[in-house]
Amino acid sequence: MTTGDDPVKLMKQQVGKAAAERVQSGSIVGLGTGSTTAYAIQFLGDRLKSGELKDIKGVPTSFQASVLAKQYGIPLTTLDEIDHIDIAIDGADEVDPQHNLIKGGGAAHTREKVVDSLAAQFIVVVDSSKIVDRLGSTFAVPVEVLPMAIAPVTRAVQKLGGQPELRMGVKKDGPVITDQGNMVLDVKFEAIDNPAELEKTLNNIPGVLENGLFVGLADLVLVGEIENEQPKVRQM
Ligand code: 5RP
C-alpha cells in the first residue's frame, strides 16, 4: 500500500480518482464537499492540466469546494449562469442498500442537495466504512437550522424521537456556522424506518432549512475498498 500507511486515505483517493475519470470534456460538474470529493477535485484538476480533459465548469457545493477548485485550476460557474449540470460527484456519511444517503458531515448538505439533485448523473464516492444496512446506524442526521429557531426546532425533533446535539466548532469557539450563516443540529434516531418520510417531516419544521437525508438521488455509488492489501473500487 502507498499514501502513507493510511488505508482509509488510500480508499478515498482511489474512489475519488475513479469518479473524476468519468467526467467528459465540455461537462458542467457539481463539485461536492468532504475529504473524498477533495481527491476527485484534485484529479479533475490534473486531467485539465494534462490536456486530457477540456472545457469543464464546476458548480461548488461549499466554500471548501470552491477553494479547492481554484487551487486545482477548475473554472467555476453558478446556478444563475447555467441551466443544467451533467454530473455531480459527492461523498456521503452513510449509504444504505437502496443507495439512500446521510450527508452533512461537513455541514454542506443544503447546497449539496441543491447541486446533486440537479445533476443528470449524481455519483457518490465513499470508502467501505460508509456502507450500512440501515440509515442512522452510525451517524446522526444533520439538520441545518436558522439560529433564531434553534430552541423550537430542538423541541420539535425531540418530539419526533430524535436526540439533537448542537454541532460545535473545531478550532473555533461556539457552534458551527454553515456557509449560509445557520447552525446545525445533529439528530440521532434509534431507527430510521422510512427515510423518505423522515426527510420530509424534518424539512416541514419551521426554521429548518434542509436535512442530510438524500433519498432516491444517487445514480451510482462507487465504493473504495482494500482487498489483499490493494485498493479497489467497486460499483455498489
Ligand atoms: C459534507 C458531506 C460529505 O460529503 C460527507 O461528510 C463525507 O465526507 P468525507 O468524504 O470527508 O468522509 O456530506 O457535508
TrEMBL record:
<keyword id="KW-0413">Isomerase</keyword>
<dbReference type="GO" id="GO:0006014">
    <property type="term" value="P:D-ribose metabolic process"/>
</dbReference>
<comment type="function">
    <text>Catalyzes the reversible conversion of ribose-5-phosphate to ribulose 5-phosphate.</text>
</comment>
<feature type="binding site">
    <location>
        <begin position="90"/>
        <end position="93"/>
    </location>
    <ligand>
        <name>substrate</name>
    </ligand>
</feature>
<dbReference type="GO" id="GO:0004751">
    <property type="term" value="F:ribose-5-phosphate isomerase activity"/>
</dbReference>
<dbReference type="InterPro" id="IPR004788">
    <property type="entry name" value="Ribose5P_isomerase_type_A"/>
</dbReference>
<dbReference type="GO" id="GO:0009052">
    <property type="term" value="P:pentose-phosphate shunt, non-oxidative branch"/>
</dbReference>
<comment type="subunit">
    <text>Homodimer.</text>
</comment>
<dbReference type="Pfam" id="PF06026">
    <property type="entry name" value="Rib_5-P_isom_A"/>
</dbReference>
<feature type="binding site">
    <location>
        <position position="130"/>
    </location>
    <ligand>
        <name>substrate</name>
    </ligand>
</feature>
<feature type="binding site">
    <location>
        <begin position="103"/>
        <end position="106"/>
    </location>
    <ligand>
        <name>substrate</name>
    </ligand>
</feature>
<comment type="similarity">
    <text>Belongs to the ribose 5-phosphate isomerase family.</text>
</comment>
<feature type="active site" description="Proton acceptor">
    <location>
        <position position="112"/>
    </location>
</feature>
<comment type="pathway">
    <text>Carbohydrate degradation; pentose phosphate pathway; D-ribose 5-phosphate from D-ribulose 5-phosphate (non-oxidative stage): step 1/1.</text>
</comment>
<feature type="binding site">
    <location>
        <begin position="33"/>
        <end position="36"/>
    </location>
    <ligand>
        <name>substrate</name>
    </ligand>
</feature>
<protein>
    <recommendedName>
        <fullName>Ribose-5-phosphate isomerase A</fullName>
        <ecNumber>5.3.1.6</ecNumber>
    </recommendedName>
</protein>
<dbReference type="InterPro" id="IPR037171">
    <property type="entry name" value="NagB/RpiA_transferase-like"/>
</dbReference>
<dbReference type="InterPro" id="IPR020672">
    <property type="entry name" value="Ribose5P_isomerase_typA_subgr"/>
</dbReference>
<dbReference type="GO" id="GO:0005829">
    <property type="term" value="C:cytosol"/>
</dbReference>
